[in-house]
Amino acid sequence: xxxxxxxxxxxLKDAAWKAREQAYAPYSGFKVGAAVETASGRIYGGCNIENxxxxxxxxxxxxxxxxxxxxxxxILKRIVVCADTPEPVAPCGACRQVxxxxxxxxxxxxxxREGKQILTTVAELLPYSFQDFPQREEPDKGDM
Length: 144
Ligand SMILES: [Zn+2]
Fold this sequence. Notes:
The chain is about 25% helix and about 20% strand. By secondary structure, it is of the alpha+beta class. It has a single domain (about 10-125), classed as Cytidine Deaminase, domain 2, CATH 3.40.140. A 5-stranded mixed sheet has the order 2-1-3-4-5. A hairpin with a 4-residue loop joins strand 4 (about 105-110) and strand 5. The longest helix is centred in the first third of the chain and has 11 residues, at about 10-20. Residues about 1-5 have low confidence and may be disordered. The structure holds zinc ion.
């Protein structure tokens, strides 16, 4: 785990908790929030969005990353994921793979309501990942 106490995560954490308020989780009741900061300095929030056809549910992390990309962002710097769980919530495998493609250099902060947190990276979350993106337009080489 990385330890970077210098970085100010408070604004991003607040944005993630605020995004969580919009969670649409009528089936599980499990609300998750996320917020991505991009190289431009903008922040994009996301929440989980469920569907009666469960396979169509979308996680907060992907909602936030897709929001950023849909707004023209191509370099994602860091992401916060929050939930009201006993331990900081971990991204699912699908979200880890999307992080690998859209923000491979991202720092990832996982937090819960009690303030427990884990600071990690996409590389730590998804070692030996599938990384061959022949169609990719502009790789994020992490020069931020
Ligand atoms: Zn997920």
